[in-house]
Design brief:
The complex is a heterodimer.
Chain A (H helix, E strand, L loop, with lengths): L12 E10 L6 H11 L6 E13 L5 E14 L5 E6 L2 E7 L5 H19 L4 E15 L2 E2 L17 E2 L3 E7 L6 E9 L5 E13 L5 H22 L2 H7 L1
Antiparallel strand pairs in A: 1-5, 1-6, 2-3, 3-4, 4-5, 6-11, 9-10, 10-11
Chain B lengths: L2 E2 L20 H16 L2 H20 L15 H16 L6 E5 L3 E8 L2 E8 L3 E7 L6 E6 L2 H15 L1
Antiparallel strand pairs in B: 2-3, 3-4, 4-5, 5-6
Helix pairs in contact in B: 2-3
The chains are: A alpha+beta, B alpha+beta.
Chain lengths: 243, 165
Protein backbone atom coordinates (compact mmCIF):
# COMPACT_ATOMS: atom_id res chain seq x y z
CA UNK A 1 0.00 0.00 0.00
CA UNK A 2 1.27 3.43 -0.93
CA UNK A 3 1.72 5.80 1.98
CA UNK A 4 2.82 8.90 0.11
CA UNK A 5 0.65 11.97 0.69
CA UNK A 6 -1.57 12.68 -2.27
CA UNK A 7 -1.91 16.26 -3.40
CA UNK A 8 -3.27 17.70 -6.63
CA UNK A 9 -3.06 21.35 -7.60
CA UNK A 10 -6.63 21.17 -8.93
CA UNK A 11 -7.99 18.71 -6.40
CA UNK A 12 -11.41 17.44 -7.53
CA UNK A 13 -12.61 16.94 -3.93
CA UNK A 14 -15.93 18.67 -3.37
CA UNK A 15 -16.57 17.22 0.06
CA UNK A 16 -14.58 15.18 2.57
CA UNK A 17 -16.30 13.60 5.55
CA UNK A 18 -15.14 11.75 8.64
CA UNK A 19 -18.06 10.08 10.39
CA UNK A 20 -18.30 8.12 13.63
CA UNK A 21 -21.53 6.30 14.38
CA UNK A 22 -22.29 5.51 18.02
CA UNK A 23 -24.94 3.51 19.85
CA UNK A 24 -27.97 5.71 20.52
CA UNK A 25 -27.31 8.32 23.20
CA UNK A 26 -30.00 9.50 25.63
CA UNK A 27 -31.99 12.58 24.64
CA UNK A 28 -30.47 14.44 27.57
CA UNK A 29 -27.26 14.61 25.50
CA UNK A 30 -28.90 17.26 23.32
CA UNK A 31 -28.52 19.82 26.09
CA UNK A 32 -24.82 18.98 26.29
CA UNK A 33 -24.50 19.39 22.52
CA UNK A 34 -25.95 22.89 22.82
CA UNK A 35 -23.07 23.77 25.12
CA UNK A 36 -20.65 22.91 22.31
CA UNK A 37 -22.11 25.83 20.38
CA UNK A 38 -20.72 28.27 22.95
CA UNK A 39 -17.24 26.78 22.65
CA UNK A 40 -17.09 27.02 18.86
CA UNK A 41 -19.07 30.20 18.30
CA UNK A 42 -16.13 32.06 16.73
CA UNK A 43 -15.31 29.52 14.04
CA UNK A 44 -18.74 27.92 13.67
CA UNK A 45 -21.27 30.69 14.25
CA UNK A 46 -24.18 29.04 12.45
CA UNK A 47 -26.03 26.50 14.55
CA UNK A 48 -29.01 24.56 13.23
CA UNK A 49 -31.09 21.72 14.56
CA UNK A 50 -31.17 18.32 12.88
CA UNK A 51 -34.53 16.62 13.06
CA UNK A 52 -35.91 13.27 12.06
CA UNK A 53 -39.36 13.55 10.54
CA UNK A 54 -41.66 10.58 10.25
CA UNK A 55 -44.85 10.50 8.22
CA UNK A 56 -47.47 7.88 8.92
CA UNK A 57 -50.54 7.33 6.82
CA UNK A 58 -53.30 4.79 6.37
CA UNK A 59 -55.94 4.37 3.71
CA UNK A 60 -58.36 1.96 5.41
CA UNK A 61 -60.67 1.95 7.29
CA UNK A 62 -60.51 5.73 7.45
CA UNK A 63 -57.89 7.74 5.55
CA UNK A 64 -55.59 9.52 7.96
CA UNK A 65 -52.09 10.91 8.08
CA UNK A 66 -49.81 12.24 10.77
CA UNK A 67 -46.26 13.49 11.09
CA UNK A 68 -43.85 13.59 13.99
CA UNK A 69 -40.60 15.48 14.18
CA UNK A 70 -37.87 14.48 16.61
CA UNK A 71 -34.76 16.50 17.34
CA UNK A 72 -31.72 14.23 16.91
CA UNK A 73 -28.80 16.64 16.97
CA UNK A 74 -27.19 19.93 16.11
CA UNK A 75 -25.11 21.16 13.21
CA UNK A 76 -22.40 23.78 13.60
CA UNK A 77 -21.31 25.54 10.43
CA UNK A 78 -18.55 28.02 9.64
CA UNK A 79 -19.45 31.52 8.41
CA UNK A 80 -18.49 30.64 4.83
CA UNK A 81 -20.56 27.42 5.12
CA UNK A 82 -17.66 25.35 3.81
CA UNK A 83 -16.86 23.57 7.04
CA UNK A 84 -19.29 21.99 9.48
CA UNK A 85 -19.74 19.28 12.03
CA UNK A 86 -22.76 17.47 13.35
CA UNK A 87 -23.31 16.30 16.92
CA UNK A 88 -26.13 13.76 16.78
CA UNK A 89 -27.60 11.23 19.16
CA UNK A 90 -26.41 8.52 16.77
CA UNK A 91 -22.99 9.90 15.98
CA UNK A 92 -20.63 12.61 14.88
CA UNK A 93 -19.51 13.79 11.46
CA UNK A 94 -17.13 16.44 10.22
CA UNK A 95 -17.51 17.84 6.70
CA UNK A 96 -15.19 19.94 4.59
CA UNK A 97 -16.44 21.35 1.29
CA UNK A 98 -14.17 22.62 -1.49
CA UNK A 99 -11.58 24.04 -1.41
CA UNK A 100 -10.01 21.12 0.38
CA UNK A 101 -6.64 21.81 2.00
CA UNK A 102 -4.85 18.67 3.06
CA UNK A 103 -5.37 15.61 5.18
CA UNK A 104 -3.52 16.92 8.23
CA UNK A 105 -5.64 20.05 8.59
CA UNK A 106 -8.85 18.17 7.78
CA UNK A 107 -8.14 15.29 10.12
CA UNK A 108 -6.80 17.62 12.82
CA UNK A 109 -9.93 19.76 12.90
CA UNK A 110 -12.17 16.68 12.80
CA UNK A 111 -10.29 15.27 15.78
CA UNK A 112 -10.62 18.49 17.79
CA UNK A 113 -14.36 18.64 17.17
CA UNK A 114 -14.73 14.94 17.94
CA UNK A 115 -13.14 15.62 21.34
CA UNK A 116 -15.78 18.27 22.05
CA UNK A 117 -18.49 15.81 21.06
CA UNK A 118 -16.88 13.06 23.10
CA UNK A 119 -16.67 15.23 26.19
CA UNK A 120 -20.26 16.41 25.81
CA UNK A 121 -21.70 12.96 25.17
CA UNK A 122 -19.87 11.10 27.94
CA UNK A 123 -19.54 7.31 27.88
CA UNK A 124 -20.50 5.88 24.53
CA UNK A 125 -20.19 2.83 22.35
CA UNK A 126 -18.60 3.48 18.97
CA UNK A 127 -20.03 1.24 16.24
CA UNK A 128 -18.82 2.31 12.82
CA UNK A 129 -16.46 4.90 11.43
CA UNK A 130 -16.24 6.17 7.89
CA UNK A 131 -14.00 8.23 5.66
CA UNK A 132 -15.76 9.57 2.59
CA UNK A 133 -14.39 11.60 -0.30
CA UNK A 134 -16.72 13.00 -2.94
CA UNK A 135 -15.01 14.12 -6.14
CA UNK A 136 -16.18 15.98 -9.20
CA UNK A 137 -14.13 15.07 -12.26
CA UNK A 138 -14.69 17.62 -15.00
CA UNK A 139 -13.92 16.24 -18.46
CA UNK A 140 -14.57 17.34 -22.04
CA UNK A 141 -17.88 16.23 -23.54
CA UNK A 142 -18.54 14.48 -25.76
CA UNK A 143 -15.66 12.20 -24.90
CA UNK A 144 -14.75 8.63 -24.07
CA UNK A 145 -15.23 7.74 -20.40
CA UNK A 146 -12.32 5.32 -20.52
CA UNK A 147 -9.96 8.19 -21.25
CA UNK A 148 -10.56 9.60 -17.79
CA UNK A 149 -11.91 6.97 -15.47
CA UNK A 150 -11.32 3.26 -15.06
CA UNK A 151 -14.60 2.35 -13.39
CA UNK A 152 -17.50 2.69 -15.79
CA UNK A 153 -20.38 0.60 -17.16
CA UNK A 154 -19.45 -1.75 -19.98
CA UNK A 155 -22.03 -1.73 -22.73
CA UNK A 156 -22.23 -4.45 -25.41
CA UNK A 157 -21.22 -3.06 -28.81
CA UNK A 158 -24.67 -3.91 -30.19
CA UNK A 159 -26.18 -1.25 -27.92
CA UNK A 160 -25.86 2.52 -28.29
CA UNK A 161 -22.61 3.71 -26.76
CA UNK A 162 -23.65 7.26 -26.05
CA UNK A 163 -24.40 7.82 -22.36
CA UNK A 164 -26.67 10.65 -21.38
CA UNK A 165 -26.26 9.70 -17.73
CA UNK A 166 -25.67 6.67 -15.59
CA UNK A 167 -25.72 5.70 -11.94
CA UNK A 168 -23.24 3.14 -10.75
CA UNK A 169 -23.14 1.82 -7.21
CA UNK A 170 -20.60 -0.73 -6.03
CA UNK A 171 -20.26 -2.25 -2.58
CA UNK A 172 -16.81 -3.73 -2.28
CA UNK A 173 -15.57 -5.54 0.85
CA UNK A 174 -12.13 -4.33 1.84
CA UNK A 175 -9.65 -6.90 3.04
CA UNK A 176 -7.74 -4.35 5.07
CA UNK A 177 -9.61 -3.26 8.19
CA UNK A 178 -12.68 -5.39 7.48
CA UNK A 179 -14.49 -2.47 5.94
CA UNK A 180 -16.70 -1.90 2.94
CA UNK A 181 -16.19 0.62 0.16
CA UNK A 182 -19.42 1.98 -1.30
CA UNK A 183 -18.69 3.74 -4.56
CA UNK A 184 -21.20 5.90 -6.38
CA UNK A 185 -20.59 7.25 -9.81
CA UNK A 186 -22.96 9.40 -11.83
CA UNK A 187 -22.97 12.61 -13.82
CA UNK A 188 -23.70 15.98 -12.27
CA UNK A 189 -24.97 19.03 -14.14
CA UNK A 190 -22.09 20.64 -15.96
CA UNK A 191 -21.08 23.61 -18.05
CA UNK A 192 -21.53 23.36 -21.84
CA UNK A 193 -18.77 21.33 -23.50
CA UNK A 194 -17.96 19.49 -20.29
CA UNK A 195 -19.26 16.61 -18.24
CA UNK A 196 -18.91 16.37 -14.48
CA UNK A 197 -18.46 12.86 -13.18
CA UNK A 198 -19.31 12.37 -9.53
CA UNK A 199 -17.00 9.85 -7.88
CA UNK A 200 -18.15 9.27 -4.31
CA UNK A 201 -16.03 6.82 -2.30
CA UNK A 202 -17.38 5.98 1.15
CA UNK A 203 -15.14 3.75 3.29
CA UNK A 204 -16.92 2.27 6.32
CA UNK A 205 -15.30 0.15 9.00
CA UNK A 206 -16.46 -1.53 12.19
CA UNK A 207 -15.48 0.31 15.37
CA UNK A 208 -16.98 -1.93 18.06
CA UNK A 209 -14.67 -2.55 20.96
CA UNK A 210 -11.77 -0.38 19.87
CA UNK A 211 -10.27 2.48 21.84
CA UNK A 212 -10.32 6.07 20.66
CA UNK A 213 -6.60 5.98 19.98
CA UNK A 214 -7.11 2.93 17.83
CA UNK A 215 -10.03 4.63 16.12
CA UNK A 216 -7.96 7.58 14.96
CA UNK A 217 -5.06 5.32 13.98
CA UNK A 218 -7.50 3.43 11.80
CA UNK A 219 -8.87 6.62 10.34
CA UNK A 220 -5.29 7.46 9.36
CA UNK A 221 -4.98 4.05 7.72
CA UNK A 222 -8.25 4.61 5.87
CA UNK A 223 -6.71 7.71 4.37
CA UNK A 224 -4.16 5.57 2.52
CA UNK A 225 -6.85 3.21 1.38
CA UNK A 226 -8.93 6.05 -0.04
CA UNK A 227 -5.85 7.44 -1.83
CA UNK A 228 -5.13 4.07 -3.42
CA UNK A 229 -8.72 3.62 -4.50
CA UNK A 230 -8.90 7.10 -6.01
CA UNK A 231 -5.68 6.63 -7.95
CA UNK A 232 -6.89 3.24 -9.16
CA UNK A 233 -10.12 4.82 -10.42
CA UNK A 234 -8.61 7.51 -12.63
CA UNK A 235 -6.48 7.34 -15.77
CA UNK A 236 -3.16 9.05 -16.34
CA UNK A 237 -5.00 11.60 -18.48
CA UNK A 238 -7.34 12.45 -15.60
CA UNK A 239 -4.41 12.63 -13.24
CA UNK A 240 -2.71 15.06 -15.59
CA UNK A 241 -5.85 17.21 -15.74
CA UNK A 242 -6.04 17.67 -11.98
CA UNK A 243 -2.30 18.00 -11.35
CA UNK B 1 -16.75 1.78 -25.26
CA UNK B 2 -19.23 4.10 -23.58
CA UNK B 3 -19.03 7.71 -24.57
CA UNK B 4 -20.40 10.67 -22.65
CA UNK B 5 -22.96 12.35 -24.86
CA UNK B 6 -25.00 15.49 -24.33
CA UNK B 7 -24.10 16.53 -20.80
CA UNK B 8 -26.66 17.69 -18.29
CA UNK B 9 -26.19 21.39 -18.51
CA UNK B 10 -26.40 23.77 -15.63
CA UNK B 11 -29.00 26.45 -16.09
CA UNK B 12 -32.64 26.57 -17.00
CA UNK B 13 -33.86 23.79 -19.24
CA UNK B 14 -36.98 21.86 -20.04
CA UNK B 15 -37.08 18.08 -20.12
CA UNK B 16 -39.73 15.71 -21.31
CA UNK B 17 -41.69 14.14 -18.50
CA UNK B 18 -41.55 10.35 -18.72
CA UNK B 19 -44.33 8.32 -17.18
CA UNK B 20 -43.39 5.47 -14.86
CA UNK B 21 -45.06 2.06 -15.16
CA UNK B 22 -46.55 0.94 -11.86
CA UNK B 23 -44.61 -2.32 -11.99
CA UNK B 24 -41.33 -0.47 -11.53
CA UNK B 25 -42.40 1.57 -8.53
CA UNK B 26 -41.14 -0.96 -5.97
CA UNK B 27 -37.74 -1.28 -7.56
CA UNK B 28 -37.50 2.47 -7.92
CA UNK B 29 -38.34 2.86 -4.27
CA UNK B 30 -35.50 0.50 -3.32
CA UNK B 31 -32.96 2.39 -5.42
CA UNK B 32 -34.36 5.75 -4.39
CA UNK B 33 -33.80 4.85 -0.73
CA UNK B 34 -30.24 3.81 -1.46
CA UNK B 35 -29.51 6.97 -3.37
CA UNK B 36 -31.40 9.18 -0.91
CA UNK B 37 -29.22 7.98 1.95
CA UNK B 38 -26.14 8.82 -0.07
CA UNK B 39 -27.40 12.29 -0.88
CA UNK B 40 -28.75 13.02 2.59
CA UNK B 41 -25.47 12.37 4.35
CA UNK B 42 -23.43 14.70 2.17
CA UNK B 43 -23.74 18.43 2.60
CA UNK B 44 -22.52 19.04 -0.94
CA UNK B 45 -25.01 16.62 -2.49
CA UNK B 46 -27.89 18.10 -0.49
CA UNK B 47 -26.91 21.52 -1.82
CA UNK B 48 -26.75 20.11 -5.35
CA UNK B 49 -30.23 18.71 -4.99
CA UNK B 50 -31.59 22.03 -3.77
CA UNK B 51 -29.80 23.82 -6.58
CA UNK B 52 -31.43 21.48 -9.10
CA UNK B 53 -34.79 22.10 -7.49
CA UNK B 54 -34.39 25.87 -7.81
CA UNK B 55 -33.31 25.53 -11.44
CA UNK B 56 -36.45 23.54 -12.15
CA UNK B 57 -38.52 26.24 -10.46
CA UNK B 58 -36.90 28.90 -12.64
CA UNK B 59 -37.72 26.78 -15.70
CA UNK B 60 -41.29 26.72 -14.54
CA UNK B 61 -41.36 30.49 -13.96
CA UNK B 62 -40.10 30.97 -17.52
CA UNK B 63 -43.29 29.36 -18.79
CA UNK B 64 -45.73 31.49 -16.76
CA UNK B 65 -48.20 33.53 -18.76
CA UNK B 66 -50.08 36.75 -18.11
CA UNK B 67 -52.37 36.67 -15.07
CA UNK B 68 -50.49 33.64 -13.73
CA UNK B 69 -51.74 34.33 -10.19
CA UNK B 70 -55.28 35.38 -11.21
CA UNK B 71 -54.48 38.89 -9.93
CA UNK B 72 -53.41 40.14 -13.37
CA UNK B 73 -49.72 39.98 -12.50
CA UNK B 74 -47.28 39.97 -15.40
CA UNK B 75 -44.98 36.96 -15.78
CA UNK B 76 -41.23 37.31 -15.17
CA UNK B 77 -39.48 38.42 -18.35
CA UNK B 78 -36.91 36.16 -20.01
CA UNK B 79 -34.21 38.66 -18.94
CA UNK B 80 -35.30 38.35 -15.31
CA UNK B 81 -35.25 34.55 -15.50
CA UNK B 82 -31.74 34.70 -16.98
CA UNK B 83 -30.58 37.14 -14.28
CA UNK B 84 -32.09 35.06 -11.48
CA UNK B 85 -30.41 31.95 -12.90
CA UNK B 86 -27.08 33.76 -12.99
CA UNK B 87 -27.60 34.98 -9.42
CA UNK B 88 -28.44 31.46 -8.30
CA UNK B 89 -25.21 30.18 -9.84
CA UNK B 90 -23.26 32.78 -7.85
CA UNK B 91 -25.04 31.71 -4.67
CA UNK B 92 -24.31 28.09 -5.50
CA UNK B 93 -20.61 28.86 -6.02
CA UNK B 94 -20.67 30.68 -2.68
CA UNK B 95 -22.33 27.73 -0.87
CA UNK B 96 -25.14 30.10 0.07
CA UNK B 97 -28.37 28.78 -1.38
CA UNK B 98 -31.65 30.56 -0.67
CA UNK B 99 -34.62 29.21 1.27
CA UNK B 100 -37.11 29.65 -1.56
CA UNK B 101 -37.71 31.31 -4.91
CA UNK B 102 -41.00 32.71 -6.13
CA UNK B 103 -42.38 34.88 -8.93
CA UNK B 104 -43.42 38.31 -7.69
CA UNK B 105 -46.74 40.01 -8.21
CA UNK B 106 -45.00 43.15 -9.52
CA UNK B 107 -43.44 41.17 -12.36
CA UNK B 108 -40.15 39.56 -11.49
CA UNK B 109 -38.56 36.86 -9.38
CA UNK B 110 -37.78 37.06 -5.66
CA UNK B 111 -35.10 34.95 -4.01
CA UNK B 112 -35.77 34.52 -0.29
CA UNK B 113 -33.44 33.79 2.62
CA UNK B 114 -34.57 32.91 6.13
CA UNK B 115 -32.23 32.30 9.04
CA UNK B 116 -33.72 32.11 12.54
CA UNK B 117 -35.73 35.31 13.01
CA UNK B 118 -34.06 37.19 10.13
CA UNK B 119 -35.23 37.31 6.54
CA UNK B 120 -34.00 38.83 3.32
CA UNK B 121 -34.79 38.73 -0.33
CA UNK B 122 -33.28 39.79 -3.63
CA UNK B 123 -35.90 40.60 -6.22
CA UNK B 124 -35.25 40.96 -9.92
CA UNK B 125 -37.95 43.10 -11.47
CA UNK B 126 -39.00 43.23 -15.09
CA UNK B 127 -38.13 46.95 -14.93
CA UNK B 128 -34.43 45.98 -14.71
CA UNK B 129 -34.01 46.76 -11.01
CA UNK B 130 -32.54 44.50 -8.38
CA UNK B 131 -34.14 45.19 -5.00
CA UNK B 132 -32.60 43.82 -1.82
CA UNK B 133 -34.62 43.90 1.40
CA UNK B 134 -33.52 42.68 4.82
CA UNK B 135 -35.84 42.60 7.80
CA UNK B 136 -36.86 41.12 11.12
CA UNK B 137 -39.64 41.76 13.59
CA UNK B 138 -37.68 44.23 15.73
CA UNK B 139 -36.15 46.61 13.19
CA UNK B 140 -37.27 48.65 10.22
CA UNK B 141 -36.54 46.91 6.93
CA UNK B 142 -33.35 47.80 5.10
CA UNK B 143 -34.03 48.24 1.39
CA UNK B 144 -31.32 48.72 -1.22
CA UNK B 145 -31.94 49.41 -4.90
CA UNK B 146 -29.31 47.96 -7.17
CA UNK B 147 -28.70 47.23 -10.83
CA UNK B 148 -28.36 43.87 -12.48
CA UNK B 149 -24.62 43.88 -12.99
CA UNK B 150 -21.89 41.69 -11.53
CA UNK B 151 -20.68 44.23 -8.99
CA UNK B 152 -24.16 44.97 -7.63
CA UNK B 153 -25.08 41.29 -7.49
CA UNK B 154 -21.89 40.56 -5.52
CA UNK B 155 -22.79 43.44 -3.22
CA UNK B 156 -26.30 42.03 -2.76
CA UNK B 157 -24.91 38.64 -1.75
CA UNK B 158 -22.40 40.17 0.67
CA UNK B 159 -25.05 42.36 2.29
CA UNK B 160 -27.54 39.56 2.71
CA UNK B 161 -24.91 37.21 4.03
CA UNK B 162 -23.66 39.71 6.58
CA UNK B 163 -27.17 40.59 7.69
CA UNK B 164 -28.16 36.99 8.24
CA UNK B 165 -24.96 35.95 10.03
Amino acid sequence: MATEPLHFARAPIIEAIIGIQVAALPETSLADFRAIGEQVRTDYPNQTEISFTQFTGQVLPQPSASATQTLIGLQFQSADQRQLFQARLNGFSFHRLAPYGNWDSFRGEAFRKWQLYRNAAGPMQMEVFSVRYINRLVVPAPGQLEHYIKVYPEIPPELPQMLRNYLLRLELPLEEGGGVLTMHETMLPSEPGTASILLDNDFRYPAMGITEDQLWDRIDLARHQKNNVFLACITEEMRRRIS
Amino acid sequence: MPCISQPRLTGVRKEAQLSTPKSTVKEESFFRDLVAKTWRTSNFLRLERRHEHFLQLLSHFASLGENWDSYESPPPSSEVVASATRFLKKLHDDVFLPSSIAPSAEGGIAIYFNVSDKSAYAEYRNSGQLIVAMYNEEQDPIVIELSTNNADEARAITNIRQYLS
